[in-house]
Amino acid sequence: MNNEIRTHHPDGQGELMAHAVDACVHCGFCLPACPTYALLGDEMDSPRGRIVLMKEVLEGALPLYDAAPHLDRCLGCQACVTACPSGVPYGELITSFRGWSEPQRERSPLDRAKRAAILKILPAPKVFSLAARVGQFAKPLAPLLPTALRSPLDLLPEHVPAMQPSAAFTPARGQRRGRVAFLVGCAQQALAPNFNAATLRVLARNGIEVVIPDGQGCCGAAALHTGARGEALKLVRANLAAFNPDDFDAILSNAAGCGAGLKEYPAILHGLPDEAQARAFATKVQDISEFLGALLDDGELEPPMPTSRPLTVAYHDACHLAHAQGVRSAPRALLRAIPGVTVLEVPEGDLCCGSAGTYNLEQPELATQLGVRKAKNILSTAPDLIASGNIGCHTQIQSHARRQGSPVPVMHTIEILDLAYRGEL
Amino acid sequence: MTIGKAVRTEKQALTPSLTTSLPKSKGGSLHPLAATLSRLLGPRKVLSSLSERLNYRYDAIAFGETPICVVLPESTADVVTAVKAARAAGVPIVGRGAASGLSGGAAPTQRGLVISFTRMTRLSIDPVRREAIAQAGVITLAVTEAAKPFGLIYPPDPASFRTSTIGGNLAENAGGPLCFKYGVTGDYVQGLEFVDAEGEVHHLTRDAYDLAGLLIGSEGTLGLITEATLRLTSPPKFTRTLMAHFAEVGQCAEAVSAAIAAGAVPSKLEFMDRACTNAIEDYLHLGLPRKAEAVLLVDTDGDDVETVEEERALVEAACRNAGGTVRRAETDAEAAQLWQARRSVSPALGRIRPQRMNEDIVVPRSVLPEVVREIRALGDASGLHLVQFGHIGDGNLHPNILFDPRTESLEAVHELAHEVARVAIRHGGVLSGEHGIGSMKLAFMREAVDAGTLAALWRVKHALDPHGALNPGKVLPTEVLPTELA
After folding, report:
1. If contacts are CB pairs under 8 Å, which of residues 41-60 in chain B contact chain A?
2. What is the reported pLDDT for A357?
3. Which of B17, B18, B163 sits opposite A31 (nearest CB)?
4. Among A131, A150, B44, B290, which is least packed, fewest CB within 10 Å?
5. Cα separations (Å) of B40 from A40, B36, B44, B195?
6. Is the domain of B427 the same as that of B362?
7. The last residue of a domain, from among B100, B116, B132
């Protein structure tokens, strides 16, 4: 699409946005892939429409406030990226755009306070855990509260587990075959500490020693995707200082959103002096399923033990794994590597569950519609277990499945693999 | 050359510089038509803010004028209300489906009312009559998906069928790979409901005067199609897919002519050249032959497996005789990937250059080898990026000129496009196989259609749309407007 964005924005982020708009041929192939287009059916709430709106705002032809409601409704799920034949890096575009536009937004004091609170609590696991435990007691009051306060409470599990800090170093079991660094994540330490415990056990079992570098923090994705670019840059640089890519075979994440965030570092720093460092870092980043999937492909994965009875597992593609990182086959292959497991495909599997980082806090109505639809689709396969590779999806799916009366356990792919290694599946 | 005069292929007028503080006012008062329509239809069905209107000014090839307002009707009655209000206000009307069209058909040439049919999605299947009754906004693929449980399909398969609407397909008489054997959209229409320029509703069948046939492919210039009764068919029991690749584009065309002359009737016969194959490969990473100058994708199908395989053998032999290398798709999944590749060609070309001029010529099959070679030679001589792909089985080719308006001359692009069109006309071909004329091919119409016929077409247009309110600036060039209508 012809545009003059570079003229108006001659910096690195402007170049990134102009490049994305250049690549769009407005064919409309993204429309059926977009969750908000599926729900709302109008062009402004489609990826093609949003690209035009961002272009117009960047060129000064459209006021930001006019475009903002439609741009805010974008989940950032990147299903459009998978559907796009001409290769528009839509994720980079919307992220850069939000970083550029947020400082100019007029927001109500309540809205500002809510956003600030989210960005303070989410990256601080101890505070998050405390807040979650307090919230747990407030949960019965949820129906009485305004939406802004109700939506986070609705997502809390009935029982918030105690934190389990991970050891700074986990040795390989048996012969050492590799050494990785691990990003422990934020929300999942508070909400699902077993994700990390299971990850460390499975890696050790496969002869991989795991280092959890000191000084690491939040990946910055939440800040970045809500337009808090300054905040995000601090977090990105802290992680670049904490992880030395030369020391490790890989830098692993077990949260799709965080892994995708880490892989975005070169785009965030595009045109800045530390871009090359970010690139060296990002080439080492892998999702846990990508890393173990490569071992499986090479015939080097320790064989898991068979299940005690045939088990069906509905695998949910997290958007930030399938669309943002292109990781689809590895998690399925890992589950299939467990004798006795059958992997079920979910109808409308490419459609976002509505969790999308902070989306279910910012756009609770659309998020709920998508959550209901996702849970229905998953439960229609009548699975014994539900697997996903992202804490956000996990919480959203669990919350909506329970509301639809289903007791089916929702687990991280790695937790299922861990149980299989322990002979407890 | 006047192409792109009526509808700019891209927005040209750009704000000179961005002011430091963005406008804060809600800007601009509501147009009286928007106010009237909001009152009559309710605000939910009317879009009037700038961000909303800006998004209803383009299709998949062209940007047009920003509409005054947009109506999203939910019933034929809503369409009637909107048309009558626009007529009373003297405002032109442009119908719009999913705006995945490639001729500028849905991009307005004048400020007016856009009626977007995406909320008119009622669809029912009558398995006994083997018919689907679809409102204009039904997604093309949804018809087949709804018909499948009854053992039926709806064959027309434009590349955008996951996005495009039945209304848009009817307006442009869309084709697709299956159309070589099974026919285009119009061949499946049993009946139509449409709203005329005065807001009256009519029901048309294919008997007596085939007025349904007149509406099909009329690009919203004669009336607005609101519902269609579509014929469904049984899917073939067996399908076989093969891919052949060639060291030269003419060889590919020779293979096609030879295969059909030998008696093969494949259901799909699709061609793409080297640049197309590479753009697709960059997107899907399927292992397509990047070095081949031409790739041919072929399906043979039918209910008798022996005949289907015989036909495939005929095509394979023709490909080998022409110098091609043949590979069979071994699984359904592999075949599905190849066809996804083919459907992605057009948008994937955006990877090469940000903008393009596309063509939709149809030439007799007997001259295909000369035509593809002549077009290839024109491209090579021009120094511009010219690529070719298309439904080669029925001689429908899509030469595309890919360019960057910042570094390449628009005049040179237009001149090359015109040269390509002349090749088609010289070989007894026509300009539009399936995309429609819209605004993109308007400039070629006077060369492709004789003056007497154009005058007759104008009189038909005038009879149905005397005020010229329906999608003005499309299909018929104003330069040849008969004097009595001027």
Report:
1. 47, 49-52, 54-56, 58-60
2. 79
3. B163
4. B44
5. 22, 6, 11, 18
6. yes
7. B116
